[in-house]
Amino acid sequence: MDFFQNKLDSIKKKLNDKGLYDVRLLVLGLVGLIAISVFWNGAKIVQQNFELTQKVAQIQKENEILELENRNKELQNEYLATDEFAELTARRVFGKASPGERVYIVPKDVALASLSVQPEPTEEQVLESDKPQYQQNLEAWLNIYFGN
Prior knowledge:
Elements: H1 2-18, H2 23-80, H3 83-94, H4 108-113, H5 123-129, H6 133-146
């Protein structure tokens, strides 16, 4: 115990020699520490409130998106219940027609034979498709302006 008392006395003496062992100075230091602690806790609370506000905003956006999707589904369901949709489905699926109309059934091979076949891409087109989109876009604009 004497050891600690001697150390404490030597610290007090060093502080007193430097003029730092004044009660007012110690109280001022204590008040400063309390002020810093209050400021730090306040800053943490502000940060937490900011993060919570961001989370609330994100959840509200997601909620709005879900509400729009629900409304879209409601509108789609309303459309599916209309006579217009029933008529279009009957025409497409069952080959039905309105009075005064004629239905022509075209065999699949005849329909496919009348389609125009896309030509095979040239080597230049294949090389151009390997380029990044921004480069293709830039070259297209240069071709428009300078007519290459």
